[in-house]
Amino acid sequence: MAQEAEKASKDASNNGAQEPAPDTPPKADSKPKAKANTGPAANTPKPQQQGDGNGSQKEAPKPAGAKQGNGAGGTKQGGQGGAKGKGPGQRPTIQIRPVAQPARVKRRHWGLLLAFLIMVAAPIAISAWYLYQRAEDQYASTLGFTVRSEDISSAADLLGGLGASLGGSSGGGSDTDILYEFIRSQELVTLIDERLDLRGIYSRHAQTDPVFAFDPDGYIEDLTSYWRRVVRVSYDAGSGLMELRVLAFSPDEAKAIAEAIYDESSAMINELSAIARADATRYAGEDLELAVERLKQSREALTAFRVENQIVDLTADIQGQMGLLNTLQAQLAEAFIELDLISTNARSDDPRVEQAERRIEVIQARIDEERLKFGAAPRGGDGESYADTIAEFERLSVDREFAEQAYVVALSSYDGARAEANRQSRYLAAYIQPTLAEKPEFPQRELLLALVALFSLLIWTILSLIYYALRDRP
């Protein structure tokens, strides 16, 4: 008993709950010996301290026959959570902390379990039942194609590169963009519905499978929305490749729908190409008419100039004028030589000298007059110099040459546009022909069931966290 008391004293001193008794002197060398209790008190349980929830300790009731300390050694209760024994022979009390009780199922736990069954287990069970019992098998047909464009070299390129290329006015990428929107459009859905009866194909299982089948009473907008579910379009803008996956309740119907999409897409591309070719032909014809009119005007102006100035060929006329000047220059030289010979042997009053001088003056005057035709002096009395006449002739000649070249280019462009209009410059090139499925691959039951389970569990978890966050909020 003494060892137990000493151990209890150490524990109480560590917890700040034991105080030394002032009236009891410590014994240095004596050790109390424990006495064995053989009476009925030996089997009596020891008193225990119980907490009242406010930090104080409450002494448990003692059984009959147990000894209790008198007033000085009684139990002291307070806010410090301990009892101090002060009476002589009173055993010190020990502070015992409360122990957590076992968890018990409460109403909120049952609520969370019920919410889990409603929000997670029930959707999974219903989805699994529908997917494996009611959902009809769907077959897929794959189609892949791209827009090809031919480049046609025009005849104008062979005549000097003044004309532009007539083929491939727009790249395949822009045509594929238009085709991508056309496949998803209501116009294509209407055309294929009139051709294959899409409503009858997709509403055959509307009674047994209302989720994956089409409602026969739906409008064209509903059919277009359903069309975008069963026709998946994959488009690579960089390469211009387009791949389609068409779903239907039978493999033959899926292939027929894919072939109809290919035919209608080809018709649409040909229509766009025909419009472009018609525009190119019309523009080329207008340019040709304008070039012909300009050529006619330039030729008429040149003819009127020749009639007015009595010049058929300006080059020949200039050569004639230069030949006349050369002849006059030669005659003038001969006249000077003759005058020198006569002056050497004749007298000063010899009439031959006067005649030679007169001849020289006439030739010189004629040379001056002929040279004035090439200068700024007026030609004759019409007030126009020969130089101005040459300049006007050259201007008209240049206009005629330019009109002729423009006419040649316009004519070659028109011929190229007509040649392009007679051929197909844009067309669809299918690198994957519509396939015929052998087994149903849709709906993807495992994937859909996993998605339902994932999102149901996420929703239940988020709502549970929100509930506990609001519950723990002060």
Automatic annotation (TrEMBL):
Transmembrane segments: 110-132, 447-470
InterPro entries linked to this entry: Bact_polysacc_biosynth/exp
Amino acid composition bias (Basic and acidic residues), ranges on this chain: 1-10
Keywords: Membrane, Transmembrane, Transmembrane helix
Regions of compositional bias (Polar residues) in chain numbering: 45-57
Gene Ontology CC annotations of this record: plasma membrane
GO molecular function: protein tyrosine kinase activity
Name of the featured protein: Chain length determinant protein
